[in-house]
Amino acid sequence: MTVIANIIAIFRKELQGYFFSPFAYVVTAVFWALSGFMFFTILMSVIQNIVQSEQLGIPIPPIDAAYEFILQFFSVMGLLVLFVLPVFSMSLYAEERKRGTLELLATSPLTNWSVAVGKLLAVLTFFMFTILPFLIYQAIAFSSANPPVPPAVPLLALLGLVLLAAAILSLGMFISSLTDSLILSAVLTFSLALGLWIIDAIADRTVSPFREILSHLSLLKHYNNLVQGIVDTSSLVLLCSYIVLGIFLTAQSIESLRFSRN
Predict the structure, then answer these.
(1) What is the DSSP string of 84-113?
(2) Alpha-carbon Rg for the chain in angstroms
(3) Is residue 249 predicted with pLDDT exceeding 90?
C-alpha cells in the first residue's frame, strides 16, 4: 500500500506541474491546431476522392470512407506525436537534476520504481488530455457513416496511440534522467523514437535473421497493426516491453546516482 500511495503522490505532484505549466499549454495548443488542420484536410481528401470518382464515372470498388479516414488520420498523428512527446518527457528528471533536487529524490525513502511509475503515469495522463479532441473528431467523421463504424476500430486506434505514447515517454524519461539539459533530452528522445519508427525500413535492406529482429522492434509496424484494427498480441507485448524497459532503465539510472552519493 505504501508503494501505491507513493506512486499516487508523485503522480499528483507531476500532473499538477503539467496543468500549471504555460509551456505545456502552448505545446498542447499547437498540437490541437495541427491535429485539427490534419483532421479537416484528410477528411476532405477522402470525401473528394470518392466524389470525383463518381462524377467522372470511374468504376471504383466500394470504399469504407470512415476506415480509410482512420488509417490516414492516425498514421499522420503517429508521426506528429514523435515531435510532441519528447517535449513532454524532457523535463521529467532533467528539471530535477537542473534544480539540484534529483539528489534529494535519489536519497529519499521513495523507491526509484515508484517515482518513475508516478512520473510516467502523470505525463501519460496529460498526453491523453491532449488527444481528447480526437473523440470529437471521430464523432464528427463517423456520425454519417453508413454502415456505422464498429466502435472497436477507432478504440483500437486510440489504444495504439496511447501505447505508442507511453513507450516513447518511458524511453524519454530514461534519457531525461541522464542529463540536466532539457533541449538535449528532447533531441535525444526524438532521435531514438525516430530510429525505432523507421527501423522497419532499415530491416528491409538487411538480410535474415537481422531483418526479422529489426522488423519486430519497429514502433511503426506494431502501431499500424492496432490502427488497422488488428489485435496482434506480439504488438501489444512489444509496446508494453518498451514501457517496462524505460521504467527499468530510469530506476537503474537513479539507483546509480544514489550509489555514487553514498
Answers:
(1) HHHHHHTTTTHHHHHHT-HHHHHTSSS-HH
(2) 21
(3) yes
